[in-house]
């Protein structure tokens, strides 16, 4: 998919999460605010709840984005939102 969209996919060294701090921070946020606070009876419920979580998170104001939500920031950046 990356190649078809002309996106370069970079890999980090194994065991070096500091090389990819933004993604690691996102994983921690998901772990603390979603996975540790939810239980799922099946895969369908997990998928439903994770879609809701992603929508909520992407519409929250973030201080790192000057008070904009990720969706607002994306809209202002001119970057196209890619869905896989």
Q: Summarize this, please?
A:
The chain is mainly alpha-helical.
Overall description:
It comes from Candidatus Kerfeldbacteria bacterium CG08_land_8_20_14_0_20_43_14. Residues 1-78 form the Integrase catalytic domain. This is Integrase catalytic domain-containing protein. GO terms for molecular function: nucleic acid binding. With 84 residues, the protein is mainly alpha-helical. It has a domain at 40-84. The protein is built from 3 helices and no strands. The chain has helices at residues 21-33, 43-58, 70-77. The radius of gyration is 15 Å and the shape is globular. 0% of the residues are buried.
List the SSEs and their pairings.
Blueprint: H1 21-33, H2 43-58, H3 70-77
Domain Integrase catalytic: 1-78
Organism: Candidatus Kerfeldbacteria bacterium CG08_land_8_20_14_0_20_43_14
Protein name: Integrase catalytic domain-containing protein
């Amino acid at each position: 998919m990356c190649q078809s969209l002309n996106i370069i996919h970079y890999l980090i060294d194994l065991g070096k999460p500091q090389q990819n701090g933004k993604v690691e921070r996102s994983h921690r946020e998901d772990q603390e605010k979603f996975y540790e606070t939810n239980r799922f009876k099946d895969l369908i419920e997990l998928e439903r709840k994770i879609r809701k979580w992603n929508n909520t998170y992407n519409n929250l104001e973030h201080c790192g984005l000057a008070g904009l939500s990720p969706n607002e920031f994306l809209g202002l950046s001119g970057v196209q939102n890619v869905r896989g």
